[in-house]
Amino acid sequence: MKLYDFDATFDKKLSEFLLKNPSKYSEEEWEELIPKLYEKFGNTKINALGKTPVEYYADMSDEELVKTLSSHLKKGVTVSGFLQDEVYARNLKTLIYNFFNGEDGEIDFAINYFGSDSAALQFYLKTLFESDSKTERKNEVCALLTEKADEVKLSVLNYYERGLERDFALEILAACKIKDDKIFNILIKEFTFDLENIAKNAYLLATYGDEKALPTLYKKIDDEDITYVEYTELKYAIERLGGYYDKERNFELDPYYALIKGQNGSDNNKKS
Asked: Model's pTM, two decimal places?
């Protein structure tokens, strides 16, 4: 199958156009003009094809279109906007789902294609908790799973209890909208015993949004040993859960305070 890099052809024509019109348009005008030129190019017949780039993909069957897309992704040939638009214009979920078993380029495309669609959640769970995928991909699928946190809650609880990717598991569990004592108790336990991540776990409690966490947060924020960073996250969590904290605290010896606030010698920079 011959693959056409329409974007490379367009870029070549655009370069020629720019050389002929070096100062005809301002930078802002170019930003508005280039998408219009790209659209025009997509609807201009290419003699070697006997059709326009838009028509070239529109005339393909679903199977041909997905096969062409797969070849582009595997061979590193740019997926033009014309190809992508035609793919998204059709209902190709069943065919695109097979990309999850393919190469990296196909997997990345499938993730973007499905987003947080429920059909892809099982793949995301396995990618996040059972694979050695790159951190970037794990972060991406974790963000998508948080959008469907209640739907995947039981699976994530199981992974958490097995000790797999607990940081990711906590992030997803904290995003659940339907309150659950089991999740609340897990978040409280992590906050209470994980003294290395007080700020992060306070944020998770704030995200979960259960005001029953307020007494625990009030107790911790009064601790004289917390850092300024921890204090600010605790105060944020308290306020987000409907509480209020206005006690003055002195952090002048905290290097993080000096870094964030800046030392100028004023008393206002020593209390919060």
From this structure: 0.87
